[in-house]
Design goal:
Elements lengths: L1 H8 L6 E5 L2 E3 L2 H10 L6 E5 L2 E3 L18 E5 L2 E2 L20 E5 L8 H6 L5 E3 L7 H7 L10 E3 L8 H8 L7 E3 L20 E3 L18 E3 L17 E3 L19 E3 L10 H5 L6 E3 L5 E2 L2 H9 L3 H4 L9 E3 L15 H4 L1 H25 L2 H16 L7
Parallel strand pairs: 1-3, 2-4, 3-5, 4-6, 5-7, 7-8, 8-9, 9-10, 10-11, 11-12, 12-13, 13-14, 14-15, 16-17
Subcellular location: Membrane
GO cellular component, one term: receptor complex
GO molecular function: signaling receptor activity; triacyl lipopeptide binding
Amino acid sequence: AEMQLLRVMSSSFAKKISLKQTLLTDATVPEIISILEDMPKLVEVEMIDCRLLGTGRWKIQIQANQSETVRVLTIEKLSIEEFYLFTDLQAVEGLLSLLTKVTVENTKVFLVPCSLSQHLRSLEYLDLSSNLLGDQSLEHSACQGAWPSLQTLNLSQNSLSDLEMTGKSLSHLRNLSLLDISQNNFGEIPDVCEWPKNLKYLNVSSTHIPKLTTCIPPTLEVLDVSANNLKEFGLQLPFLKELYLTKNQLKTLPGAAPIPNLVAMSVRRNKLNSFSREEFESFKKMELLDASDNNFICSCEFLSFIHHQAGIAQVLVGWPDRYVCDSPLAVRGAQVGAVHLSLMECHRSLVVSLICALVFVLILVLVAVGYKYHVVWYLRMTWAWLQAKRKPKRAPP
């Protein structure tokens, strides 16, 4: 029924075809591709949650004689029961040269044949996330001549474990500017790595990196190192505009000097207790700061800065709802912006000193007044009179 429907649509002007929960075989795949080639306006083909019974040994050689329009191919959750026996797909290489965007997600891809990668000459966007690519297989997949036009590459949630090798495997991709290798398992990283020269965006979040080194390329404009248990950040990244440090162990804001062009930063869910006016103002170009979900110590100094810093409400992401005091105990759970400590709490030493000074002055005044108006003599006379009144009267003789 599905094949008949596709045949009916072969001469239609549809721009996108989506196959969902479809059963494919080595016999039906060539027929489907032949039908899609006849569709004059077709731009995008999508396959979601489909099953393929076969190994890619298709009976006919598929030629790209007619299809000049398809640019986008999306394959998500394709189940290939015998994926380990799957062929290198030489039969479809001729269909690939015009594709500009390819997504093959959660499909147990463990290798992209070098020849196949080399035929993807127009490819600008490639998403291979949630697959089984390892360090060696990535090196083979990204061989010399592979993906020459690639600008965006997503390799998140694969089986990569060597950051140095990953960078080196991709270093020849001259146009690559955005790389997502998050949710891999890199661990400790070396001090020196090789990267694509035009890399601007790097996502290495959730990769078990305990400490950042100069392996991170200095060309970056956007860096995401969230969820890595980092305790500090001190990299020299002169072009960096966005920095994401969510879910780490930072106790203070990073220094501004090594990242002078920073525009946006997230330090959400760290161990930040407070930050000062000096730290905040040292980021000259800062437009957005997400410091929410930290355990703030609402000291007088911190509250004074927060309440009086001009425009801070427009800079802080999530303000005021997600900025909550953890201490002192009396204000725990209250929003930082709503807390106002008393004069006694903020300036206890000064208040005590003033009270002591006032008491001392009052005593001096009383002494001076008493001296001037002979208060001491009057007090003595009053005391003598009281004593005389208390003496018992003598009995008459």
